[in-house]
Amino acid sequence: MTPQNRRKLSGRIIKAAEAALAAKNYVSSVDVLVGIGWLDPASLKRWQQGQVAYLERVVQANLSRISEAMKLFRSWAAGKGLVPKETHYIARTPRRQTLCFSKSGNPTIEQLYRTHWLSGELSKSKRERLAERASRAPELVVIQPLNLAWTCHRCGGTGNLLVMENPGPACLRCVGLGDLEFLSAGNALLTRRAKAKSVRHAVVVRFSKSRGRYERQGLLLEPQALAEVQRNLAQQEVKSVGKGAADA
Question: What is the pTM of this model?
Fold first, then answer.
């Protein structure tokens, strides 16, 4: 890369990084790659859903240019006094596998990609909370299809709900979610408590043709967790009614 091209690339990287930092109080390698136009959001989403083996595969630049760009980014971040914090990237799949960034899979390269750079103006506790949120595993998404004439690519079965995988749709039984129970949206208290109790859960969405987007329909939850929360809320309601009657 010529010095002139390096300066141009550095300018683009700084502009993208500054925008992400201003918006989120931290900036990542992914933010920069998207910001300079080398990684389109659709390809990023596919990678996050475990449909792409490694991120570099869908970055629109060769490995040497990607490496140079990441060096320029880290140099800028360190010079600006940002605080490095390694985070976890977990796939939005039932397997919850760790996402891979590089073609080589080299642990050092993977660590550099996973490192977020946080604003040095934040307190230590705020930086820790920010890093913790960034490392949370994303919610699983299950689709309630408009067309029920679909076939699971694994077993050939079908159903009312599916999970999209790279080869095609998969039924809940095949992805290990067949034992979960559906709770429709509407009761915020029940939903919040049952979700907190359920080790495994997934968001159920359905595409709205009129609004042109997927909309939340409810949650899939572990039956025992849902039953326990429903029982506790019912007992609390009985006690509340009894107390009200006694006060009267």
Answer: 0.74
